[in-house]
Specification:
Strand order of the largest sheet: 3-2-1-4-5-11-10
CATH topology of the largest domain: Rossmann fold
CATH superfamily of the largest domain: Vaccinia Virus protein VP39
Strand content: 35-45%
Bound molecules: S-adenosylmethionine
Distance between the termini: 41 Å
Order of helices and strands: HHEHEHEEHEEHEEEHEE
Number of helices: 7
Radius of gyration: 18 Å
Number of domains: 2
Largest sheet: 7 strands, mixed
């Protein structure tokens, strides 16, 4: 068990995300592009869930991308996302990674390139967070039971912390860190502090929509309440947010853009 296993356990919920992205696309998408893919967890799930599905996972980091080398249907591309040229029905950027693009110029250039990779009817989707606490330093903690299949032990809990360490509302820059503590019967048996540290520009929803529009993704929609949007059978039901009252005081949303 390494920090990537714990990241997949505590941070990602690809079982929900794959059907959500299909529903946001609205048709029968087959080809996923996962940019800033990390361990390509979404790509793997996509190919398992979709008949004839394929995915291209793009990341700069060789070791992270190599974590699961033999995933049927998944092509791993070690590259800067700005130079990836593979086509996609759905092109996804997750866990706030759009914030690696620090300036508006970089953002628009990337979005233009992303648009050029979309197949007809294709959609680009990224996530962001906002609301009351967006620029307030602080931390949230969540316990996650570790399945025996993952650690070979069973009964242990991963205590996950998401920390917003610094946040500057004048520049939009934030520093976020992820920490893991493995708890066995009340004792911390392993600690991974600063397992991941990110320096991001926190793009607001209207900034993303404006930039998408300028990059030729003229129709933009925002999706919220995502945890409740997938039923037990894995069917997703999504409708775009039309009224700001539908958003929580602090929120995470998906922003989708189509040509
Ligand atoms: C926050 S992780 C995202 C993991 C996963 N996509 C998710 O949704 O949780 C960000 C990843 O982006 C990669 N990355 C950062 N800048 C990149 C770039 N310009 N091109 C490709 N990958 C990049 C990092 O190596 C890291 O693995």
């Amino acid at each position: 068990m390494d920090k990537h296993d714990l990241y997949e356990l505590c941070v990602q919920s690809v079982d929900h995300l794959a059907p959500l992205l299909r529903a946001i696309h609205g048709g029968s998408p087959r080809m996923l592009g996962e940019d800033f893919a990390g361990t390509a967890a979404l790509s793997r799930r996509w190919c398992e869930a979709i008949d004839g599905g394929s995915a291209v996972a793009v990341d700069l980091d060789t070791d992270t991308l190599a974590k699961h080398p033999d995933a049927p249907g998944v092509t791993r591309l070690e590259a800067d996302v700005r130079f990836a040229n593979t086509p996609a029905d759905v092109l996804f950027v997750g866990n706030f990674s759009i914030g690696y693009l620090h300036t508006r110029g970089e953002l628009i250039e990337y979005l233009r390139h992303a648009r050029s990779r979309l197949t007809p009817g294709g959609v680009f989707v990224c996530d962001t967070y906002g609301g009351d606490s967006a620029f307030i330093p602080g931390a949230v903690h969540r316990p996650h039971p570790i399945p025996k299949a993952l650690d070979g032990v069973g009964g242990r809990i991963c205590r996950y912390t998401w920390e917003q360490r610094d946040a500057d509302p004048l520049t939009g820059m934030v520093t976020n860190a992820i920490h893991f503590r493995v708890d066995h019967c009340g004792d911390i048996v392993e600690e991974m502090l600063d397992a991941f540290v990110y320096e991001w520009r926190l793009w607001s929803v209207p900034e993303l929509r404006d930039a998408m529009g300028e990059a030729g993704l003229a129709q933009t929609d925002v999706y919220a309440g995502l945890a409740d949007a997938v039923d037990d059978e894995g069917n997703a039901y999504v409708t775009p947010v039309e009224d700001p009252d539908e958003l929580d005081e602090s929120f995470i949303v998906l922003v989708a853009g189509r040509a």
